[in-house]
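User:
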Amino acid sequence: MVAGQPKEEKHWLDLTILPDDGPSMALWRLVSAFVEVLERLGAFCTIQVRPLKTVKADSEEILVFRRGRPGAPARELDKLLDPPGRRAVLLTDSVGDAWQHELLYPMLARWARTMPVNTVHLLPQWLWRQCGLNLRRAELRVAGALKSSSQWAFDLTDARLDSDSAELFRVEPMFELQPQWLAWWAKMMAGEHDGAAEGAILLSLRQARQAGSSDTSGTPSPSERVHRFRSVASPPALRLAQLLAAVPVHLDVARVIKQRFVPEAGLEHLLELLVSGIMYAPGLKEGQSTWDTGGVFAFPEAVRELLLSGARRSETASVVRVAATHFGGRIPVLGHLRDAIADPHNTPDPVLTLETTADVELESAVMRALSGPYLSRADRLRNAVLRPGSVVPATEPIQSVSPRCLRRLIAPPTPLPRRRDARTRPRNPVWPSRPPDRSPTPSRPE
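Assistant: Predicted structure:
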């Protein structure tokens, strides 16, 4: 890949990569590999990685970037402006708050006036629209190498700009992190593409939306959110959601469950859960980055229960056992959950504290999904969460569930033999006993 270096002048273009410091970036480890490939090319003078983060200042959200590691001091995005136009900025994700709240678009417009701006999307193209981006197909034309994004011409092919489009501006093309897409990007940057080239561009308002200006009345309920996810999700993503709802969603746990139960699923299917909103990243502490959390995610409690209600009980129990075998020593709730499934009546209730509330809610949801002898434990744990300090222990020990009974509880139901009613009887039934023959018996010859 040649990113537009003139033959008579080499190594003068700087490249700045801005990866989102959002929850989705914990799933990807491609940024460092991408930087290594670009360094090996030798096409750039310098390559800088500046993680992009959304922070709150005076009740407003602003964008900052960090030098080097995510824990480095934050700096304003204006520092990235390069008037000579010798810096191409690549943005490697569009799932974080900077994109969803449209905080980044005004800064992109300012960058586009002086330098080339392009977006590398880590998701496959069929998932782009689920990110809530205003993407449009267009024919792109650029005259010359390394032109600023404002000098790129485009014609929309799937829409038409009306009189209200004066409030819209263009954000430069998106492309996947795949060889054929990178080759297309390199030719466009170098001005070597003859004629118009098809691509995707992003249209949005010039001004960023205020954080509190969004209409919260249209927030979908948990049942609506799950119904919407089931209607648009791919089969591997739906199966992953039902399985991961039974365990704490750590990234390494999700990878083991994916390899064991859904081997056909890829990382993009796991990211579908984040894009759809049924899974989220818990709030981070001050100064903490999602790159440092190791990939810890969670389901809303009502969403978890709805997902578990659509899963088979045998698979729910199997997922817990597999996860406990691999991570029970590091994640104690998995071992306790496995013991509760094996012996729901004699396994001690978990100690309810502020730190273990999520674990108790998880166990209550799993017990309720397994139903049968687990319902009393599920009700007891739910009452403990709803009324802290009034934990109701089991009044007396009950004999544990036998292995045979446990297998029958969590095993898939065997189909009952088909009863033969009047509609399924043969047309020529076989009499149970023949009627007596009333014909006269021949007399014996004398």
